[in-house]
Amino acid sequence: MKLYGYWRSTSSYRVRIALALKGLTADAVPVHLVRGGGEHHQPSYRAINPQGRVPALELDDATVLIQSPAILEYLEETHPAPALLPQDPVERARVRAVAAIIGCDIHPLHNSGPLGFLRKSFGHSEAEVAEWIGTWVGQGLAAVEQLIGDDGYCFGREPGLADVYLIPQLYAARRFSVPLDAYPRIRRVEALALDHPAFKAAHPSAQVDAE
Ligand SMILES: N[C@@H](CCC(=O)N[C@@H](CS)C(=O)NCC(=O)O)C(=O)O
What we know:
The protein is α+β, with helices and mostly antiparallel strands and 211 residues long. The chain has two domains: 2-82, Glutaredoxin (3-Layer(aba) Sandwich), CATH 3.40.30; 89-199, Glutathione S-transferase Yfyf (Class Pi), Chain A, domain 2 (Up-down Bundle). It has nine helices and four strands; from the N terminus they run βαβαββααααααα. It has a four-stranded mixed β-sheet with strand order 2-1-3-4, with helices on one face. β3 (56-58) and β4 (64-66) form a beta hairpin. It starts with a strand and ends in a 9-residue tail after the last helix. The protein binds glutathione. Glutathione (GSH) is lined by residues 9-11, 33, 40, 53-55, 67-69, 103, 111-113. Glutathione binds next to α1, α3 and α5.
Protein backbone atom coordinates (compact mmCIF):
# COMPACT_ATOMS: atom_id res chain seq x y z
CA MET A 1 0.00 0.00 0.00
CA LYS A 2 0.95 3.65 -0.45
CA LEU A 3 -0.18 6.45 1.83
CA TYR A 4 -0.28 9.88 0.21
CA GLY A 5 -0.04 12.32 3.09
CA TYR A 6 1.67 15.26 4.71
CA TRP A 7 3.68 15.00 7.93
CA ARG A 8 1.60 17.44 9.99
CA SER A 9 -1.79 16.78 8.38
CA THR A 10 -4.04 15.55 11.17
CA SER A 11 -6.12 13.42 8.79
CA SER A 12 -2.97 11.69 7.50
CA TYR A 13 -1.79 11.23 11.10
CA ARG A 14 -5.06 9.41 11.94
CA VAL A 15 -4.49 6.88 9.18
CA ARG A 16 -0.84 6.39 10.15
CA ILE A 17 -1.90 5.60 13.73
CA ALA A 18 -4.52 3.08 12.61
CA LEU A 19 -2.07 1.36 10.26
CA ALA A 20 0.53 1.15 13.03
CA LEU A 21 -1.95 -0.12 15.63
CA LYS A 22 -2.99 -2.87 13.23
CA GLY A 23 0.61 -3.76 12.37
CA LEU A 24 0.19 -2.70 8.73
CA THR A 25 2.71 -0.79 6.65
CA ALA A 26 2.21 1.60 3.76
CA ASP A 27 4.92 3.39 1.81
CA ALA A 28 4.73 7.10 2.55
CA VAL A 29 4.25 9.35 -0.48
CA PRO A 30 4.65 12.93 0.78
CA VAL A 31 2.35 15.56 -0.75
CA HIS A 32 3.56 19.00 0.32
CA LEU A 33 0.56 21.15 1.22
CA VAL A 34 2.48 24.43 1.24
CA ARG A 35 5.42 24.33 -1.17
CA GLY A 36 4.74 25.85 -4.58
CA GLY A 37 1.19 26.73 -3.60
CA GLY A 38 0.53 23.12 -2.59
CA GLU A 39 1.34 19.90 -4.43
CA HIS A 40 -2.19 18.73 -3.64
CA HIS A 41 -3.46 21.22 -6.26
CA GLN A 42 -1.27 19.75 -9.01
CA PRO A 43 -3.06 17.76 -11.75
CA SER A 44 -0.86 14.74 -10.96
CA TYR A 45 -2.28 14.59 -7.42
CA ARG A 46 -5.84 15.49 -8.49
CA ALA A 47 -5.67 12.41 -10.69
CA ILE A 48 -5.21 10.40 -7.50
CA ASN A 49 -7.67 12.33 -5.33
CA PRO A 50 -10.07 14.60 -7.25
CA GLN A 51 -10.79 16.48 -4.01
CA GLY A 52 -7.13 17.48 -3.79
CA ARG A 53 -6.72 16.66 -0.14
CA VAL A 54 -4.66 14.22 1.89
CA PRO A 55 -4.71 11.44 2.89
CA ALA A 56 -5.25 8.97 0.08
CA LEU A 57 -4.50 5.29 0.53
CA GLU A 58 -3.54 3.33 -2.58
CA LEU A 59 -4.07 -0.39 -2.16
CA ASP A 60 -1.81 -3.02 -3.71
CA ASP A 61 -4.27 -3.47 -6.62
CA ALA A 62 -4.05 0.32 -7.31
CA THR A 63 -7.49 1.07 -5.84
CA VAL A 64 -7.40 4.50 -4.22
CA LEU A 65 -9.35 5.29 -1.06
CA ILE A 66 -9.81 8.86 0.16
CA GLN A 67 -11.24 10.55 3.29
CA SER A 68 -9.70 9.38 6.55
CA PRO A 69 -13.04 8.20 8.09
CA ALA A 70 -13.63 5.95 5.07
CA ILE A 71 -10.04 4.71 5.11
CA LEU A 72 -10.24 3.96 8.85
CA GLU A 73 -13.49 2.02 8.40
CA TYR A 74 -11.90 0.10 5.51
CA LEU A 75 -8.90 -0.83 7.66
CA GLU A 76 -11.18 -1.89 10.51
CA GLU A 77 -13.30 -4.04 8.20
CA THR A 78 -10.40 -5.69 6.39
CA HIS A 79 -8.10 -6.06 9.42
CA PRO A 80 -10.47 -6.45 12.36
CA ALA A 81 -7.76 -7.31 14.91
CA PRO A 82 -6.83 -5.46 16.97
CA ALA A 83 -10.25 -3.81 16.90
CA LEU A 84 -10.54 -0.02 16.97
CA LEU A 85 -14.24 -0.21 17.78
CA PRO A 86 -15.93 -2.05 20.68
CA GLN A 87 -18.44 -4.82 19.99
CA ASP A 88 -21.43 -3.28 21.77
CA PRO A 89 -23.47 -1.02 19.42
CA VAL A 90 -24.04 1.65 22.07
CA GLU A 91 -20.34 1.71 22.95
CA ARG A 92 -19.48 1.89 19.25
CA ALA A 93 -21.79 4.88 18.87
CA ARG A 94 -20.09 6.61 21.81
CA VAL A 95 -16.64 6.08 20.27
CA ARG A 96 -17.88 7.27 16.87
CA ALA A 97 -19.42 10.37 18.47
CA VAL A 98 -16.03 11.49 19.81
CA ALA A 99 -14.47 10.74 16.41
CA ALA A 100 -17.20 12.83 14.74
CA ILE A 101 -16.78 15.79 17.10
CA ILE A 102 -13.14 15.91 16.07
CA GLY A 103 -13.44 14.89 12.43
CA CYS A 104 -16.62 16.81 11.54
CA ASP A 105 -16.92 19.67 14.01
CA ILE A 106 -13.35 20.67 14.95
CA HIS A 107 -10.88 19.79 12.21
CA PRO A 108 -12.70 21.33 9.20
CA LEU A 109 -12.72 24.71 10.95
CA HIS A 110 -8.92 24.88 11.25
CA ASN A 111 -8.00 23.14 8.02
CA SER A 112 -5.48 25.01 5.89
CA GLY A 113 -7.94 25.80 3.06
CA PRO A 114 -10.60 27.54 5.21
CA LEU A 115 -7.92 29.36 7.26
CA GLY A 116 -6.37 30.67 4.05
CA PHE A 117 -9.83 31.88 3.01
CA LEU A 118 -10.27 33.76 6.30
CA ARG A 119 -6.91 35.45 5.75
CA LYS A 120 -6.98 36.17 2.03
CA SER A 121 -10.66 36.61 1.12
CA PHE A 122 -11.95 38.15 4.36
CA GLY A 123 -8.72 39.91 5.38
CA HIS A 124 -8.63 38.58 8.93
CA SER A 125 -5.49 39.17 10.98
CA GLU A 126 -3.40 36.36 12.50
CA ALA A 127 -4.82 37.28 15.93
CA GLU A 128 -8.38 36.88 14.63
CA VAL A 129 -7.54 33.59 12.96
CA ALA A 130 -5.95 32.36 16.21
CA GLU A 131 -9.12 33.33 18.11
CA TRP A 132 -11.24 31.47 15.55
CA ILE A 133 -9.11 28.33 15.90
CA GLY A 134 -9.03 28.52 19.71
CA THR A 135 -12.80 28.92 19.89
CA TRP A 136 -13.70 25.86 17.85
CA VAL A 137 -10.91 23.61 19.12
CA GLY A 138 -11.73 24.62 22.70
CA GLN A 139 -15.49 24.03 22.35
CA GLY A 140 -14.95 20.62 20.77
CA LEU A 141 -12.33 19.44 23.25
CA ALA A 142 -14.47 20.61 26.18
CA ALA A 143 -17.19 18.23 24.97
CA VAL A 144 -14.72 15.39 24.39
CA GLU A 145 -13.41 15.87 27.96
CA GLN A 146 -16.93 15.15 29.27
CA LEU A 147 -17.46 12.12 27.06
CA ILE A 148 -14.32 10.04 27.63
CA GLY A 149 -13.50 7.79 30.55
CA ASP A 150 -11.64 8.33 33.81
CA ASP A 151 -8.68 6.07 33.14
CA GLY A 152 -6.68 4.50 30.34
CA TYR A 153 -7.30 5.65 26.79
CA CYS A 154 -10.49 7.45 25.72
CA PHE A 155 -12.57 4.30 26.14
CA GLY A 156 -10.64 1.63 27.98
CA ARG A 157 -7.24 0.09 28.43
CA GLU A 158 -6.43 -0.30 24.73
CA PRO A 159 -6.30 2.51 22.17
CA GLY A 160 -9.23 2.73 19.77
CA LEU A 161 -10.86 4.92 17.15
CA ALA A 162 -11.48 7.86 19.49
CA ASP A 163 -7.76 7.96 20.32
CA VAL A 164 -6.91 7.73 16.62
CA TYR A 165 -8.80 11.02 16.17
CA LEU A 166 -7.89 12.69 19.46
CA ILE A 167 -4.10 12.48 19.38
CA PRO A 168 -3.68 14.24 16.00
CA GLN A 169 -6.20 16.86 17.13
CA LEU A 170 -4.08 17.53 20.22
CA TYR A 171 -0.98 17.84 18.05
CA ALA A 172 -2.84 20.52 16.06
CA ALA A 173 -4.08 22.21 19.24
CA ARG A 174 -0.52 22.48 20.54
CA ARG A 175 0.71 23.70 17.16
CA PHE A 176 -1.89 26.49 17.28
CA SER A 177 -1.14 27.21 20.98
CA VAL A 178 -4.64 26.28 22.16
CA PRO A 179 -4.51 25.80 25.97
CA LEU A 180 -5.21 22.24 27.15
CA ASP A 181 -5.00 22.84 30.93
CA ALA A 182 -8.76 22.49 31.41
CA TYR A 183 -8.81 18.94 30.03
CA PRO A 184 -7.12 16.53 32.50
CA ARG A 185 -8.69 13.40 30.99
CA ILE A 186 -7.58 14.39 27.52
CA ARG A 187 -4.05 15.13 28.76
CA ARG A 188 -3.96 11.71 30.48
CA VAL A 189 -4.85 10.01 27.18
CA GLU A 190 -2.25 12.08 25.34
CA ALA A 191 0.50 11.10 27.79
CA LEU A 192 -0.38 7.41 27.46
CA ALA A 193 -0.56 7.51 23.68
CA LEU A 194 2.66 9.41 23.16
CA ASP A 195 4.41 6.55 24.98
CA HIS A 196 2.82 3.88 22.75
CA PRO A 197 5.01 2.52 19.90
CA ALA A 198 2.26 2.82 17.25
CA PHE A 199 1.54 6.44 18.14
CA LYS A 200 5.27 7.17 18.24
CA ALA A 201 5.79 5.72 14.77
CA ALA A 202 2.85 7.74 13.42
CA HIS A 203 3.93 11.03 15.01
CA PRO A 204 4.54 13.89 12.54
CA SER A 205 8.14 14.30 13.72
CA ALA A 206 8.87 10.66 12.74
CA GLN A 207 7.80 11.09 9.10
CA VAL A 208 10.18 11.18 6.13
CA ASP A 209 8.90 14.63 5.10
CA ALA A 210 9.00 16.15 8.61
CA GLU A 211 10.45 19.65 8.66
N1 LIG B 1 -12.34 14.95 5.91
C1 LIG B 1 -11.08 14.75 5.26
C2 LIG B 1 -10.23 15.98 5.43
C3 LIG B 1 -9.00 15.91 4.57
C4 LIG B 1 -8.27 17.23 4.63
O1 LIG B 1 -8.89 18.29 4.63
N2 LIG B 1 -6.93 17.16 4.70
C5 LIG B 1 -6.16 18.38 4.82
C6 LIG B 1 -4.90 18.13 5.61
S1 LIG B 1 -5.28 17.60 7.26
C7 LIG B 1 -5.83 18.89 3.45
O2 LIG B 1 -5.55 18.15 2.55
N3 LIG B 1 -5.87 20.22 3.33
C8 LIG B 1 -5.54 20.89 2.13
C9 LIG B 1 -6.48 22.00 1.80
O3 LIG B 1 -7.47 22.20 2.51
O4 LIG B 1 -6.22 22.67 0.81
C10 LIG B 1 -10.35 13.53 5.85
O5 LIG B 1 -10.57 13.27 7.04
O6 LIG B 1 -9.61 12.87 5.13
